User: What shape does this take?
Amino acid sequence: MRVVADTSKCVGAGQCVLTDPDVFDQDDADGTVVVLVDEPTGEHEAKAREAVQICPSQALSLAD
Ligand code: SF4
Assistant: This one.
């Protein structure tokens, strides 16, 4: 599973970072999402799936 982020949709809400700061960060300049680990495993995979669900702007998606 791979995490895909569309920064053009990201509104910098930070919900993904709160869900798993090991996988997601925010750009220092504009607050948009930075994916730190694009193929998370184990508990981080579960957290990444949760982040995709809760992102308020549908900026995150999953690829195989
Ligand atoms: S939760 Fe969505 S909108 Fe908020 S920072 Fe993460 S990707 Fe961007």
In short: The radius of gyration is 10 Å. Residues 5, 10-16, 26, 33, 55-57, 59-60 surround iron/sulfur cluster (CB under 6 Å). The helical segments are 15-19, 43-54. The first helix runs from residue 15 to 19.
